[in-house]
Design goal:
It is a single chain. Helix content is 35%, strand content 15%. The protein is an alpha/beta fold. It has 2 domains: 220 residues, Rossmann fold (3-Layer(aba) Sandwich); 126 residues, Rossmann fold (3-Layer(aba) Sandwich), CATH 3.40.50. The protein has a 7-stranded parallel β-sheet, sandwiched between helices. Strands 12-11-10-13-14-15 form a 6-stranded parallel β-sheet. It has a two-stranded antiparallel ribbon with strand order 1-2. Helix 7 links the parallel strand 7 and strand 8. The longest helix is centred in the last third of the chain and has 19 residues. It starts with a strand and ends in a 30-residue tail after the last helix.
């Protein structure tokens, strides 16, 4: 497996020897913000679970998330041995304060001395036998949620205790608490694989030998357009949970764009990425757009995103931008948070999504975009990069059985590649 940096230089990532699947099964411990539900977070977890179902269906797989009950129901059929828990999330919440340094210190102490948190002793014991502790990708390790830095500290401590491998992939780390940057770099140096999805996150980890930059985890296997969903010409996904913009301001911006583009209500669909949160703007617009079609989260999750070539999207949601552009749709990324969402959308635009970006408070009405989404070669290249990341974390699926007797849990360091600033 190789990566190329921006100068075109090749860097190898030797895979660890995969253990025999006929002996004691591996224990893979995934960590992510699943179960809220949030379409992007669930899609990232689903992408990794499907990968592991293909490559190691006999492995014991745990998903540590803040909402394990809903996560089990949403994701439980994607790997035959998946179970959900919330140990690391609980430990982050039990830290004495929300200060990232205190959270990180507390979680590490508890992982190494479970007697300090006896209510979670069984969960900490499970952490202590994980072969891989993997922080799934997303935008949840940053200043918006400072307690979440404890997840990084906990993963590093758990891998040290078990002798397993620590990995984080597809991370969007900005904005990050300025006074915790050195702590982040110190923790990252204890990981075997550190993979980020945008340039600002790469710059934040500059100097960390383990770190490199590829793209979002969903590129491992982007969802195909669903033939079961009728695709309308204009599609909206506008959130109301992050940013300082009033719902009425967002509704006015969206309606102004649709009127300028002469979109008829019968040509419009509305997609919900988070239940209720993405319905607030639609609720203000539905009397103005009588005949528009609403796709609640449950339908999007079960049937797929109604994305197709020739569509025009307006989306504040990053992963809807990614999926729609991968399906060949054009769009405008409406930024509701310059320090958070703008970075996320910019990473996809720089990668070649063909979308434009507009601040939600801008008075400008853009022309209707006429792009065709990601070029096929970009999707292929990004998928190859993420497959290399997956094999760096879990090892390649064995072509032939490995001889019995390989030591379980042996930790093998990965040769560090340089930064790749091309994003794939």
């Amino acid at each position: 497996m190789t990566f190329r940096d921006s100068a075109g230089e090749q860097h190898g990532l030797p895979a660890r020897t995969a253990p025999s699947r006929t002996t004691a099964s591996r224990c893979y411990y995934l960590v992510g913000p699943s179960g809220y539900p949030n379409f992007g977070d669930e899609l990232i977890a689903a992408t990794w679970l499907r990968y592991l179902a293909r490559t190691d269906p006999g492995a014991e797989v745990w998903l540590d998330c803040h909402s394990p009950g809903p996560a089990q129901l949403l994701l439980g059929d994607l790997h035959p041995r998946l179970r959900c828990t919330d140990t690391l999330w609980r430990l982050c919440g039990e830290a004495p304060s929300a200060d990232p340094w205190e959270v990180a210190a507390w979680v590490q102490e508890v992982v190494h001395d479970p007697g300090r948190a006896p209510r979670w002793d069984a969960g900490i014991a499970l952490l202590g036998r994980a072969d891989v502790v993997h922080l799934l990708g997303g935008g949840y390790l940053n200043a918006l949620w400072p307690r979440h830095l404890g997840l990084i500290a906990g993963a590093a401590a758990a891998a040290r205790r078990s002798g397993g491998r620590a990995a984080m992939t597809g991370q969007g780390l900005v904005p990050f608490p300025a006074d915790a940057t050195h702590l982040l770099r110190s923790l990252a140096d204890r990981f075997d694989v550190v993979d980020v999805r945008d340039d600002p996150s790469a710059e934040l980890l500059a100097g960390c030998a383990a770190a490199y930059r590829t793209c979002d985890d969903v590129f491992l296997a982007p969802p195909a357009p669903s033939p079961a969903t009728a695709a309308r010409e204009f599609v909206l996904c506008v959130q109301s949970d992050i940013g300082a913009h009033e719902v009425s301001t967002l509704a006015a911006k969206v309606l102004g764009m649709l009127r300028a583009w002469r979109a008829e209500p019968g040509q419009i669909a509305v997609v919900e990425g988070i239940p209720r949160v993405d319905r607030a703007v639609h609720s203000l617009l539905e009397h103005e757009l009588d005949g528009a079609e609403f796709h609640p989260f449950r339908d999007v999750w079960r049937r797929g995103v109604p994305a197709a070539p020739g569509q025009t999207w307006i989306s504040t949601r990053y992963h809807l931008h990614l999926v729609a552009a991968a399906a060949g749709a054009a769009g405008v990324a409406l930024s509701v948070s310059p320090g958070y969402y703008a970075t996320k959308h910019r990473s996809l635009i720089d990668l070649g999504s063909g979308w434009s970006m507009l601040d939600a408070t801008s008075k400008r009405i853009p022309d209707r975009p006429d792009g065709t989404g990601f070029p096929a070669q970009v999707i292929r290249r990004c998928s190859q990069l993420k497959l290399s990341v997956a094999e760096a974390v879990y090892g390649p699926p064995p072509a032939v059985p490995v001889e019995p007797g390989a030591e379980r849990g042996t930790r093998r360091r990965v040769l560090r590649p340089r930064w790749s600033r091309t994003g794939g």
